[in-house]
Specification:
Elements (H helix, E strand, L loop, with lengths): L2 H22 L16 H6 L3 H29 L4 H23 L3 H20 L4
Helix pairs in contact: 1-3, 1-4, 3-4, 3-5, 4-5
């Protein structure tokens, strides 16, 4: 498996880890005060606030970022583009997504948007390699 393929797996797992922060962060909270409710998780998520709400939102954005990234990696590899370059950009994408999560949790909206744009640009750069 290529490094880029491992990065696809990492990108798929990042949203799970991110929402795990929100869920795990509520483990010590009494159920009536907002502890994670596995019987009704979507209703639970609607009542989140602060960093837990942002962690849940970062999870949703992580899932939204997946289709372009996965398609870009697959198409670039199918086009037999330079695998080393695909790998480098895929690692960059993962690094950007990790920074994105951190900035999101820190509630830095403008910086978050700039980091998000870097992730999209990285996916587009990979996708453009399919033109080769």
């Amino acid at each position: 498996m290529t490094i880029a393929n491992w990065c696809v797996l990492a990108a798929c797992l990042l949203p799970v880890v991110t929402v795990g922060l929100a869920k795990g962060g509520s483990a010590k909270v009494p159920r009536e005060a907002g502890r994670y409710d596995n019987d009704n998780p979507r209703e639970w998520a609607k009542n989140l606030s602060g960093w837990r709400q942002r962690a849940n939102a970062a999870q949703q954005n992580g899932f939204e970022a997946l289709p372009l990234f996965i398609a870009a990696v697959v198409l670039a590899q199918q086009a037999h583009a330079d695998q080393t370059r695909i790998d480098q950009l895929a690692v960059l994408f993962i690094a950007i997504r990790i920074v994105y999560i951190i900035v999101y949790l820190m509630n830095q909206g403008t910086l978050r948007t700039l980091v998000w744009a870097g992730g999209v640009a990285t996916s587009i750069a990979i996708l453009l390699m399919a033109q080769a």
